[in-house]
Amino acid sequence: MPARPRCVVAEDQYLLRDGLTHLLTAHGFDVVEAVGTGPELERALRSHRPDVSVVDVRMPPTLTDEGLQVALAVRRDVPGLPILVLSQHVEQLYARELLADGAGAIGYLLKDRVFNADQFIDAVRRVAGGGTAMDPEVIAKLVAGNASDPLAALTPREREVLGLMAEGCSNAAIAGRLHFSEGAVGKHTANIFAKLGIVASDDTNRRVLAVLAYLGTGGS
């Protein structure tokens, strides 16, 4: 990830768009464009191919799922283009489609559950670095809508660890949340990879594939 990652912001409300721009700039991002409509977002993504984009779901002209539809369309043409969805709503069908290519670099946060700047900036950086940043409420809705269970072989503790991985937590953060050692987390993640049939690769990619299995997208 570059020292000053290039970012596109897509939000139809001026005050929130301006606030996001100032927040990202203050934390070391170069906001190359901030837009308020779906067509502007598509042009900005294709023209800049930014290191990360923060995208609202409901934008003009339709005010339905314009932002997410544009993100999907551009990401089909530019695989792995990092997208962090920031919305008031969980659009399950499109969220699954956004995750399904298996490339990672995806996040989905709910606006009313972002409680401080550090939480938000950490999520943006994780997505820019190729990882995932999923709100637990989004995860719960995606898992609840998954008819199959690819995780039947996992123990309850392994499922818990995998759920925190889906949020974007590092091994150290998982250890802190669950109150056991980082070494124990490493053993759990190794077991998760083995049970899900995820072969040795770089650790970031294996985590992404495990998260995709957890969310039931079939991205591997």
**Which ranges are low-confidence, i.e. pLDDT below 50, for 5 or more consecutive residues?**
none
CATH topology of the largest domain, what is it called? Rossmann fold
Instruction: Give the CA-based shape.
Output: globular
Task: Let me know the CATH homologous superfamily of the largest domain.
Answer: Response regulator
Can you offer a commentary on this structure?
- The protein folds into two domains: 6-145, Response regulator (Rossmann fold, 3-Layer(aba) Sandwich), CATH 3.40.50.2300; 156-217, Arc Repressor Mutant, subunit A (Orthogonal Bundle), CATH 1.10.10.10.
- The radius of gyration is 17 Å and the shape is globular.
- It has 220 residues and is an alpha/beta fold.
- The protein is built from ten helices and six strands.
- Strand 4, helix 4 and strand 5 form a beta-alpha-beta unit.
- It has helices at residues 14-26, 38-48, 66-77, 92-99, 117-128, 136-144, 156-167, 171-178, 182-195, 203-215, and strands at 6-10, 30-35, 52-55, 83-87, 106-110, 132-134.
- Helix 3 runs parallel beside helix 4 (92-99), helix 7 crosses helix 10 (203-215) and helix 8 (171-178) crosses helix 9.
- Keywords: DNA-binding, Phosphoprotein, Transcription, Transcription regulation.
- This is DNA-binding response regulator.
- The modification 4-aspartylphosphate is found at residue 56.
- Residues 6-126 form the Response regulatory domain.
Secondary structure topology:
Layout: E1 6-10, H1 14-26, E2 30-35, H2 38-48, E3 52-55, H3 66-77, E4 83-87, H4 92-99, E5 106-110, H5 117-128, E6 132-134, H6 136-144, H7 156-167, H8 171-178, H9 182-195, H10 203-215
Parallel strand pairs: 1-2, 1-3, 3-4, 4-5, 5-6
